[in-house]
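Hello everyone,

My group is preparing for a crystallization screen and wants a predicted model to guide construct design. The compound we'll soak is adenosine-5'-triphosphate. Before spending weeks at the bench, it would help to have a computed complex in hand. I've included the protein sequence and the ligand's SMILES below. Output in structure-token form would be ideal because that's what our pipeline reads.
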Amino acid sequence: MALIQVSGLTKSYGPKQVLRGIDLAVDEGEIVGILGPNGSGKTTAVECIGGLRTPDAGQIAVAGHDPRGAGAELRELLGMQLQQCRLPARIKVGEALALYSSFYTDPRPNEELLERFDLADQRGTRFVNLSGGQQQRLSVALALIGRPRVAFLDELTTGLDPSARRDIWSYLELLRNDGVTMILVTHFMEEAQYLCDRVVILSEGRIIAEGAPDEVAGSGGSQEISFDASTDIPLTELQELPAVTDVSVARGRVIVHGGEEAPQQVIAAMTQRGIPTQRLRITTPTLDDAFLSLTQHNHHEPEAPEEQ
Ligand SMILES: Nc1ncnc2c1ncn2[C@@H]1O[C@H](COP(=O)(O)OP(=O)(O)OP(=O)(O)O)[C@@H](O)[C@H]1O
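Reply:
Good plan to model first. Here are the tokens for the complex, ready for your pipeline.
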């Protein structure tokens, strides 16, 4: 049985339907990334799963509990970092940590978190006077203070410089080793590729792709095979290979696009004819490519109002 089980989740805000039937199962210890364009429903989905918003329909179970109206038992298991850290402007860093510690039976020591999230010098600083990156680090620290079994992290490294981002990644790696289950909302494909066992791509309130980051990367974009052009290249023959979608010649290079089998088929065809593929380069699709191609395919323009 999955630790998090969601089925048929729907949610509208007024007339606007934001989630249109989400099914998701997350196993204990898994790190799942929720990706999607702005406004695709990621935060709404995660906050419904965490019990902060009430869905219109569907079932949600987190460690066997319904998060709506969840009691203390479930609250102890969950850690939530929200997209906008909702803290009072004048609260000091040390006070916020002490306050959140008081919610849990076995909180992480505040000193450990101040150290880990590079906030030791800011313990007396009010929230409003922290930099964007410091506010962000504090919100991640607060999400993890109760040693959660399930952590929801929404855009956890947005606004952080590359070194702070890497520091947070390495901390999450430690939590992964402790078996913490995590749902991450992120716009950074590199982050998803680095941290996630599985990614889910949302578009317009539906899941349009799901799988290991490499699998999803391979499914959305195309392979590119390029090599130096010469007069003997059988362009028409290459174009007719089953996995090839297009062949072009630019700046003295032959450029072939196609599916997973395309590199193998192109190389075999060239070898059969005894033509060397000079300065051969094969570029496999990245998660970025797949994200763009999948979400653009799925994007439906809103219907234009009928003319009177
Ligand atoms: N409380 C709310 N009331 C009304 N509409 C809302 C509310 N919260 C979100 N929305 C709308 O629902 C849609 C989905 O929002 P949501 O924040 O879930 O998307 P998201 O994928 O997390 O977006 P982003 O990447 O921009 O953070 C958006 O059009 C947003 O304006």
